Amino acid sequence: MKHKIVGKQKNSKLCFVCGMKNDLGLKAHFYVTEGQELIALFKPCEEHQSYPGRLHGGVASAILDETIGRAILNKYDTEVWGVTIELNVKFKKPIPLNEELKVVGRITKENNRIFEGTGEIYLQNGETAVTAYGKYFKVPLEKIADFDPEENEWKIIEKEDDPDEIEI
């Protein structure tokens, strides 16, 4: 299925998942679809392994947590942040290293204080490798961390190969 891309979310400097200057991080980029889903693209490397040649389950959980939690940003003009309450992950297939992976996250339920969502990691052949369900508190960023957007380089990072659509 093809997903039309209508926007891109911000990256930061040192976040393990989206930090562009974190040498050991995933350096994931997040794209908003016209259906308000969020698709993360990343390429895990040797430093992200558990067994040789396989992505560590904790790293798979981290990218799913980030993607589902960030999907709430698609719904509001101002930034709404999620703090993880619960994350349930099911591993279906081993995930190889050194190839681009696609992660999809979406919001499935929301009220004033909490939101829920689901997500999947897809292999290059389109098979689902991991699924997840998460529940998150909506919290203003200033109550989560001392975060300076400029210091943390919180901005959209344009790439030459940013896609107009993503096929899964």
Q: Which descriptors would you attach to this protein?
A:
eight-stranded antiparallel sheet, globular, mainly beta
Describe this structure in words.
- The model has no long low-confidence stretch (mean pLDDT 95).
- This protein has 168 residues and is mainly β.
- A hairpin with a 5-residue loop joins strand 6 (114-122) and strand 7.
- It has an eight-stranded antiparallel β-sheet with strand order 4-7-6-5-3-2-1-8.
- The radius of gyration is 15 Å and the shape is globular.
- Helix content is 11%, strand content 37%.
- The protein has helices spanning 57-70, 141-144, and strands spanning 2-8, 29-33, 38-42, 81-91, 101-110, 114-122, 128-139, 165-167.
User: Structural class, from secondary structure content?
Assistant: mainly beta
Strand content: 35-45%
Approximate helicity band: 10-25%
| Number of discrete helical segments | 2
Unreliable spans: none
Q: Characterize the overall form.
A: globular
The beta-strand count equals: 8
> How far is the N terminus from the C terminus?
5 Å
Cα-atom Rg, whole angstroms? Answer: 15 Å
Task: Tell me the major beta sheet.
Answer: 8 strands, antiparallel
Order of helices and strands: EEEHEEEEHE
- Order of strands, main sheet, comes to 4-7-6-5-3-2-1-8
Could you report the average pLDDT, rounded to the nearest whole number? 95
